[in-house]
Amino acid sequence: MNVLLWHVHGSWTTAFVQGPHTYLLPVTPDRGPDGLGRARTFSWPASVREVAPEELRDTPLDLVLLQRPHEQELAGLWLGGRRPGRDVPALYLEHDAPGGDVPGTRHPCADRADLTVVHVTHFNRLFWDCGTTRTAVVEHGVVDPGHRYTGRLARAAVVVDEPVRRARYTGTDLLHSLADAVPLDVYGMGTEGLAGHLGLPPDRCRTADLPQDALHTALAERRMYLHPMRWTSLGPSLLEAMHLGLPVLALATTAAVEAVPPGAGTLSTRPDVLARAARRYLHEPEAAAEAGARARQAALERYGLKRFLADWERLITEVCS
Q1: What CA–CA distances, in Å, run from 143 to 43, 79, 239, 304?
Q2: CB of 82 closer than 8 Å to CB of 61
Q3: If you average pLDDT over residues 51-67, what whole number do you get?
Q4: What is the pLDDT of residue 27?
Q5: Which residues pair with 48 in a beta bridge?
Q6: Confidence class of residue 82 from pLDDT cuts 50, 70 and 90?
Q7: What pLDDT was estimated at residue 220?
Q8: Do 178 and 228 touch, CB atoms closer than 8 A?
Q9: How far apart are CA 252 and CA 187, in angstroms?
Q10: pLDDT of the residue at 100
Q11: What's residue 41's pLDDT?
Q12: Does residue 152 come out as left (phi exceeding 0), alpha (psi in the -120 to 50 range) or beta?
């Protein structure tokens, strides 16, 4: 099939395009948010093709995968009058947990008879109000990076984009006290100046934005993975860290409580409990490695690529039939 989707979330798309279809990604001269085209820092197969908006008018399509509300309008402009959901089968993939008036947040695609809203966690489906629109859940899948954990550096890894702007959503305010227990290496876009923002010495909070493979290498060298998110969707970075074999310290919020099973790390709504667990892993590297091995096994079983692609294939086949 020819599947049209926009390049919105690189990690998620990396897993999705491992399927059996041709994946068409709009590309614009400026490679802006609506025309990023192929990824520059992820490894994608040749079945991912860039297509200019003016080419889409005459391009056969079997499915449109929408991920942002305004993509419906873009499709109307670019597809020669074909409307996703009416003239071309369509799914709307919702990556995020709701914001605003939780738990009464109304989804932009609520009460649509021509769409299925696909959530990436059961938690997200529970909290979004989609009205009468059909919903489904396809949990994340991860391309296995391998069991690369060494934990040789007595530091905690954190992966978060724009931690200053997103603030309490990402638990950025908690990092100051957690850095007293374990020095942090924070990876992601918009992390520059984070130590100064938090009032931390540079060595207690280092930052970098790395391409995926370099990020995996860096994560595997850290003793543990810290997930201080208060209210975000379950990010693939957490699952990638588990695949790598890192033990997890996470706030017991949103979908993390299902993703991280007992023995794979520590879950709590109390930052002081996470700090104590961090100190233990600093002084007991064998315990950290054992918890990380359990985290990897759990991630392979629940978030493996084979299950992810099979779930998507069933849903795509159903919608396109």
Answers
A1: 10, 32, 10, 7
A2: yes
A3: 97
A4: 97
A5: 23
A6: very high
A7: 98
A8: yes
A9: 21
A10: 87
A11: 87
A12: alpha
Amino acid at 251: L
pLDDT in tens, 176-209: 999 999 999 999 999 999 999 999 999 999 999 9
Neighbours of 98 (CB within 10 A): 19
The residue type of 3 is V
3-class SS letters over the chain = CEEEECCCCHHHHHHHCCCCCEEEEEECCCCCCCCECCCCCCCCCCCEEEECHHHHCCCCCCEEEECCCCHHHHHHHHCCCCCECCCECEEEEECCCCCCCCCCCECCCCCCCCCEEEECCHHHHHHCECCCCEEEECCCCECCCCCCCCCCEEEEEEECCCHHHHHHHHCHHHHHHHHHHCCEEEECCCCCCHHHHHCCCHHHEEEECCCHHHHHHHHHHEEEEEECCCCCCCCHHHHHHHHHCCCEEEECCCCHHHHCCCCCEEEECCHHHHHHHHHHHHHCHHHHHHHHHHHHHHHHHHHEHHHHHHHHHHHHHHHHC
- Report whether 247 contacts 281 (CB < 8 A): yes
Residue bearing tokens 């918009």: 190
